[in-house]
Give the backbone structure.
Amino acid sequence: MIKSTLQKIYLGFILLLLYAPIITLIVLSFNSSKTRSKWGGFSGKWYTALFQNEDIMNALYTTLTIALVSALVATLIGTMAAIGIQALNAKFRTVMMTVTNIPMLNADIVTGISLMLLFIACRAFFPKFSLGFATVLLSHITFNIPYVILSVMPKLKQTSKYTYEAALDLGASPLYAFFKVVFPDIFPGVSSGFLLAFTMSLDDFVITHFTKGAGVDTLSTKIYSEVRKGIKPEMYALSTLLFVSVLFLLILVNTAPQDNVVKKKKEVGKFKKAANIVFRRVIPAIMVIVVVAGGFFYSSLGKTNASEQVVVYNWGEYIDPEVIDMFEEETGISVIYEEFETNESMYPKVQAGAVAYDLVCPSDYMIQRMIENNLLDEINFDNVPNIKNIGEEYFKQSKSFDPENKYSIPYCWGTVGILYNKTMVDEEVDSWSILWDEKYADQILMQNSVRDAFAVALKYSGYSLNSKDLDELEEAKELLMEQKPLVQAYVVDQVRDKMINNEAAVGVIYSGEAIYTQSQNSDLVYVVPKEGSNVWIDSWVIPKNAQNKENAEEFLNFLCRADIAKKNFDYITYSTPNTAARDLIEDEELRNSTTAFPDASILNRCETFQYLGTKFDDIYNELWREIKSK
Amino acid sequence: MKNKKRLLTGPYLFWAIAFIIIPIIMIFYYGLTDADNNFTLMNLAEITTPENLKALGLSLLLSFISTVICLVLAYPLAMILSGKSVNQSSFIVLIFILPMWMNFLLRTLAWQTLLEKNGVINAVLSFLHLPQLEIINTPYAIILGMVYNFLPFMVLPIYNVLVKIDKDVINAARDLGANNIQVFTKIILPLSVPGVISGITMVFVPALTTFVISDILGGSKILLIGNVIEQEFTHSYNWHAGSGLSLVLMIFIVISMALITKYDKDGEGTAF
């Protein structure tokens, strides 16, 4: 008795561990507030919003298609292989099983990278080949096959080969004998292999991350790109729906036979039959219908505009999704939209050219690097008449990275500064020194990117943030190392949620993010330190290998329209260089806010980043890694 | 007859060569060459820089600890599960796979919400006037994330070998006068070794190479070898160094494979 109680408690503890995060996610899906750190009351609105969110529904559809197709193909190839391997002699069997174990045991990251290298190498032979849906599918099949083989093999071992031979002796054809005698025996293995493969494909992130191309997103990659900005609550709603429906099916299938132990045998049979029909017929049928219907829907979406499209590569959460819809509606050009997290992660993708982007939105120093490496095409400004809305001063400022204003059109700009919580910091903050104040140990959020982190340290010591002086850099490194024990976390956009939620007292933040956080938590104050800081511009550029240059320019012209730029400003809250749009801002306080539109006295002490060349890139990276691994 | 059956391996053989063997060769190629395609061992030597050695050491330590915790948690669990009747246990086993239907990233992020300073767990603790739990952004949070994510991969193989143990063997031992402890140490434990080995490798290898868990739960303050490799590929764009480091990691994978082949002589695989 005690033993079984102990067992129950233990099971309960493990289940709590496994399901605590899931319950959290389910609760979050009913949270009416947009940030995960604040409970804004109960609401079911994300469930309705979910079905209107085309991005997420597309990602869901891609995920399910890839999971289903890859699991089916893997089940077919894997089952055949298992039967074949069984018939091999011991030596070959060991070789085959070793090969099978490779994707199972190999680190996801190695598998993903090795497949990416293969696909990119394929481009040498087939120039038109590019990373996309097909490459993800091939990769998923590859890592799914071993699961099927390893599920089927044990069952095959248990089947007696004599029944099969008896069937042959009685005149059955090999195929007939297989399906009537062997297959029913191994079916549990095949179906559990299929289920595992499906689940693994559904849950994979790393391999998809490395093998996917533009415009193809599974739920995993979509979520990863949202991590930095805060997950969209619709995602929680979707996961909850998925989870609950699978749970429901499981309960249905598993409890049915159990209740019936007491009931009459006949009924047991009935229930089992019902469960069988549900599991073997209805579910697969529903899945096939969903996929086929989705396929028609999907291809109709893609095909109508296949010739007229523009591939945009932008920062996460850096455009109002409605703007894209409006553009598609007005022009009939479909926008294939993809997001990146940092300049550094964007650059290799554009350089590799595995995906031909038409329009990219990097920051100043990265644009300089792209120009120097001959990756950019000149913009034909005749196609962008709305450029008149962009303030002259921003083009002047752009000259630091685009000397002749030929390659870029400013999109957003701002400063980097300190955001602090009035209730946690008593003093007046006007210097970077607060980031080294031991009073705030474990209360400090630093930027998790090389240049931003060094900019803080360099400026604090009174140097240029484009320093190429090794002694200065060494000094900055020492400062950052000294700071590390005080830092709570290195973050990019998560600083937003954490500051709103009072998780930290001080954080290094972009001015645009500061405006949003202040609207959510009025205790937050933004300052540009007296030692000076970074002023940055993110601008649109057109890569050399763009396939739809004119469409890209049409999109640019659309973005420069005053009403559209204003709409974007409302959504992303980053300062707009579009003076006509600024005039449209109704809220006078915001229009004249020094956070959103810093005045000359602030800007004079700020510097723009410059590209420092590969050599210094490596030095910065090396120093940064030393800091991070300390 | 057997000849025909062997042909069924054909498609898989083709697939394995194209998508398993060749990609591995590509990694070797990149790992052993420099930017000008000359042979070099420089990329392998990358691992000996103090930062990378430290990242590798920390990864080994954390994944070792997580594997031990997983084993300690999973073994009794698998014993309990294997003692249940078939119907109930298949349901319970599915319960372990079920969480995977919620995205892995979301589940890990949810731990962030739970563990944060003002998070759910601390709210409950402070309500009960208990001391606060401050492990977010520390290695402890990463270990928790690893244990949480990889526990099923330890439970399932051990469960699979335990249910296969012939009850007659255990009964025979009892008849011959063995007590519970003896039955466990002399019968159950030795017979479950293959499951334990495959469980250990299934937990240790992914834990060793993860970069997502350390990123999300470690506040990007803690650099594991997986993070280093990921950065080489996606930030520094140094495929050669990244491949070289991947090759170093493969040493651990080869060791795991050798272990598995040693204990799984039938070649049937005990993973699932």
Q: What stands out?
A: The two ends of chain B are 29 Å apart (CA to CA).
